[in-house]
Write a structure and sequence with these properties.
With 365 residues, the protein is of the alpha/beta class. It folds into three domains: 2-164, Rossmann fold, CATH 3.40.50.300; 170-234, Helicase, Ruva Protein, domain 3 (Orthogonal Bundle), CATH 1.10.8; 240-363, Zinc Finger, Delta Prime, domain 3. It has 18 helices and six strands. It has helices spanning 5-14, 29-43, 62-70, 94-99, 109-112, 114-124, 146-155, 170-184, 190-199, 204-221, 228-234, 240-251, 255-267, 272-291, 297-306, 313-325, 328-346, 352-363, and strands at 2-3, 20-24, 52-56, 79-84, 130-136, 162-164. Helix 14 packs across helix 16 (313-325). Residues 102-112 have low confidence and may be disordered.
């Protein structure tokens, strides 16, 4: 049976825990929610520390994990054994080549590796009071990772309960952000929600962490409202809006505005190599959009998402505006200057401001 995060929560609330689960997919917020629900349901709030065990298949073999599952604990009547990096169990070398043979209709036990067979044997007679969770968050469900995920599914085919955690889409992250803010007792308007989602690259887990910090900030000011200006000061990468404004000024060859924005970055204490990294990303993505002949923000968003690059509408609009502001030659020249400026910043120099001003002057002449 295959579950979403939400359907797993319903399952675990109504049914006894199964002997084993397979968690797969890159999304971490839903995974953490499901892990907490499973542990609370199966172990309870007063469980001893030894009741929750962590292993990784990067360090242990499947046989060692199963040996632990079969062993009786002196201190915990029930245990949850959480096994991360489940993809580490996949066979390598010749066995992996055999498993990926396109001419084979079905993987043989030998091609799947002994671990898969051992797991299937264990699940025929699992240890009472033990729940095994095999967890893999490394790969996406689509794109280049799709075949890897399918191979992983085949390896863990004996585990009948599979919980999928695909990356959340933009709408769901925005709704979750608003919901988490409401729970935390803070008020975010639509623009602030957009900025927080973009600053966290659409990661619900990071959104949750940032909202907790914003809650503490709001309490110190005795207010519920958190505005865009607060986010720009408090949330890492939210200052990328200033970087985008700088890119636009460079594209217009507006030297005065570009120097003013540079002064803002310096005044905010921005880590300059990081700021240059943002600039380089903006230039590279704009160059890709130019060379692909994209027209408009919606095409930019679709193009990068097909490549497996997270791209929100507001970010796509920024990339499109940058692509429209520069020729391909100017973008390539900008990337060269960014690289040279980055090297100069890492040298022993008396004033970083001079280095950045030279960069701005070079692109606006």
């Amino acid at each position: 049976m295959t579950y979403t995060g939400d359907s797993f929560l319903n399952h675990i609330a109504k049914q006894p825990a199964a002997a084993a689960y397979f968690f797969v997919g890159p999304e971490m917020y839903g995974r953490d929610t499901c892990r907490r629900a499973l542990v609370e349901k199966f172990l309870g709030a007063e469980a001893p520390e030894d009741a929750f065990v962590r292993h990784t298949l990067d360090e242990l073999t499947m046989a060692e994990v199963l040996d632990d599952a079969r062993a009786m604990s002196l201190f915990a009547a029930q245990r949850v054994i959480w096994v991360t990096r489940a993809e580490g169990a996949l066979p390598r070398g010749r066995a992996a080549a055999a498993a990926e043979d396109e001419g084979a209709e079905e993987e043989s036990p030998k091609a799947s590796g002994d671990g898969s067979v051992q797991l299937a044997e264990y699940l025929k007679d699992p240890t009472p009071g033990v729940v095994l969770v095999f967890d893999s968050s490394r790969w996406e469900f689509e794109g280049e990772d799709k075949a890897k995920v399918e191979r992983l599914r085949k390896y863990f085919a004996a585990v009948q309960h599979v919980v999928e955690f695909p990356r959340m889409d933009e709408g769901r992250v925005r709704r979750l952000t608003a919901e988490l803010a409401k729970r935390a007792g803070i008020e975010l308007d639509g623009e602030a929600v957009d900025l927080l989602v973009e600053a966290t690259a659409g990661s619900a887990q990071r959104v949750e962490l940032e909202i907790e910090k914003l809650r503490s900030f709001a309490e110190t000011r005795n207010t519920k409202r958190v505005g865009v200006e607060d986010l720009e000061r408090l949330v890492p990468q939210a200052r990328s809006t200033t970087i985008f404004a700088l890119v636009n000024a460079l594209g217009r060859k507006d030297r005065a505005r570009a120097l003013d924005l540079l002064d803002t970055l310096l005044g905010e204490g921005e880590y300059l190599p990081l700021a240059l990294g943002f600039l380089a990303t903006q230039f590279r993505q704009a160059l890709v959009a130019r060379e692909a002949g994209l027209r408009g923000a919606s095409q930019v968003q679709s193009h990068f998402q097909r490549m497996g690059v997270p791209m929100w509408p507001s970010r796509a609009e920024q990339v499109w505006q940058s692509a429209a502001s520069f020729s391909p030659g100017q973008l390539r020249e900008g990337l060269k200057r960014i690289s040279a400026t980055d090297r100069a910043l890492r040298d022993t120099r008396p004033d970083d401001r001079v280095v950045l001003e030279e960069f701005v002057l070079g692109l606006t002449k």
